[in-house]
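Propose amino acids for all 128 sites.
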């Protein structure tokens, strides 16, 4: 069974940092694209970043560019989202999602419809 499991969500003060992890089981990341999405109450889910494990290309939403970094450790089947300089507006449930059979990166993988597999989400709360 193909699964994605997120971890690392927490309560953090504004300006703080968190690292989220997304670990896959049932498939390897080598030929996949992974996206990190988030959803706040009353808002639509939005893509924050994505990475192609094939060529390592990354893409970011303007709202997180320069603060968030997505990376992949294929040996551990894990994708990370390093979040720095966190703001209250970053508060959301964060989801990772995957699509297999990807051979080059694209900003297309910032879109929900590009992905077939989803994790259950992890809560990030930025508050003093």
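Proposal:
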């Amino acid at each position: 069974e193909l699964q994605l499991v997120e971890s690392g969500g927490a309560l953090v003060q504004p300006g703080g940092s968190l690292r989220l992890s997304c670990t896959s089981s049932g498939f390897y990341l080598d030929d996949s694209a992974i996206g990190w999405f988030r959803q706040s109450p009353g808002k639509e889910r939005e893509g924050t970043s994505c990475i192609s494990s094939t060529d390592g290309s990354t893409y970011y939403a303007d709202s997180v560019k320069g603060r968030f970094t997505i990376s992949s450790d294929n040996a551990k089947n894990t994708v990370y989202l390093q979040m720095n300089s966190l703001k209250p507006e970053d508060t959301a449930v964060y989801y990772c999602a995957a699509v297999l059979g990807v051979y080059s990166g694209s900003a297309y993988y910032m879109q929900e419809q590009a992905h077939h597999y989803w994790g259950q989400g992890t809560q990030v709360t930025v508050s003093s």
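The CA atoms of residues 52 and 83 lie 19 Å apart. The radius of gyration is 13 Å.
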